[in-house]
Amino acid sequence: MKNIVYILFSLFMGISTWAQDVSFQAKASREKLGINERVKIEFTVDKDADNFIAPDFRGFKRLAGPNQSISQSWVNGQSSFQKTYTYFLEPQKRGKLTIGQAEIEYKGKVYKSSPIDIEVTAAVDNPNSYQSIAKSKLSDAIHLVAEVSKSKPYLNEEVYVVYKLYIGRDVNIRNYRVVDDPKFTDFWSQNIDIEQLQVKEGEYAGEPYQYVELRKTLLYPQKTGELIIEPLTVALSVQVPSDKRDIFGRRQYEYVEKNASAKTRKLQVKPLPEDGKPADFTGAVGQFKIALNTSKTSLEARESLTANLKISGTGNLSLMNLPELKIPSSLEVYEPERKDSYKTTYRGLSGYISNEYTIVPEFKGEYRIAPVQFSFFDPKEEKYKSVRTNEVNLNVEEGPEDPSRRSSIASETSSEEKSKRNIITSDLSFDYIATKTQLRPANQSNFFKSNTFWALFVSPLLLMPLFILVRRNTDKFQLSEATRKQRRANQLAKKYLSEAKKNLGDKKLFFDALERALHNYLKAKLQIATVEMSKDKIKSTLAENGVEQQLIQGFINTLSTCEMAKYSPYSNEAMNEEYKHAKDIISQLDKVL
Fold first, then answer.
1. pTM for this structure?
2. What kind of fold does domain 22-121 have according to CATH?
């Protein structure tokens, strides 16, 4: 009897517990959406629970909610109950975002929903919309368009992109903010500063509109084939006419939040032609001139002069290297100082880059600095061109003569005199034989322990340090040309790193110099030409040279940071960290390479 009572009690408690089980679930209308789209989130509980606590929706903007609804039904004598809390959200950034756990209370017990993962991508061309939230007329009144200067550029040819926001005449934009920046993968990019937004008159789809140029960007494609320009997405606070009127019959306005995105643009990047490519071509694309100027052409020995090698024009100036100046080996030359001065326009980077050499002649004489040739591809005429500097002649009027020249002249003179002395007539063939002698007795003093003996004994010991010093200098001068070039290139990379350090605080100059330092280091170590300086090429070349994948990714990430930093705020501390990171990356690569 006791067992039957126990079984019945257990069954009753189980049924009671089952009857009180609560189902609290979270559901998203979509698990993947563009940053310009919206998502509906529903939290549903099957009991009449209370004290609902929503998650913080981190990474999303709440557009509406919570909207609460209750449904109850009876089917075959069984009741069903459902309470739903609905939200409409808009993502604020790309990436994998998580809707956290919501909480609700039923009969003193707290229940939590499961988190929801949502993937947010770049803006899509045809976003979804909820007309109950956004005014339907906004879709016809606001359009963000990306206009590109050319759809089929050459590799390293400038592409000008302007983002125009077209606005209907009945709509007022109060303010805007950028929600998602395009990443410009496989492009070198530079924003063009807009001092003040100006409203202009224009047309969209044949209809009159006003428009504002929100952003202008200059792009240089770094690889061939189909490249994608990602859309720009902005959040707008818009004042639109409503259906309400005031007591005077005038239409009232209300503010509405709306996201606008430009559509994805595709470019077909053409490779540079192989036909007619000069041997000294290194990837310069545009229109350029070259000049070599010296501060003086007549001077004295040990007096310095400066030689300035300058390339000016419009094109990919920031990605170019200047050719080397060919200076006679008898002239002492210091490491050149690079100077850049260019501005970003819709036609490209316009200005100049230069190397300034300090030259000091040691000896008197005349010296010749040979012309320097520079080759580039002109995309307008679609052909390669070469320009040359003029020859420069230096006249060193006062100073010591070059001993190498003096010895060569002396050897020529002695050989001439010797040849003259060797021409003898037949009548005097034996006159050189002496027929009379003047003999003197030899000195009978001992050579051993004499002054001459000790001088000859000690002289090898005294000359040995001098011999070692001469040998070291000889080894230094006998370095191969490739080694000297590599050392010069390494010094150039260090110079750019120091230039970046000098520009801490100036975001644009700092990251430009840091990017050049990384590029020039690779050119020095791996002989990667500017025209091949794409991320894919860098990855493959470093992998072929035995660099670990983690170190390769670190280098690529640093390059990407240099590109993206132009569009993001950076503090001095952050720039200092990037400098230290770049220096550490170069140091680690140097150990491997």
1. 0.53
2. Immunoglobulin-like (2.60.40)
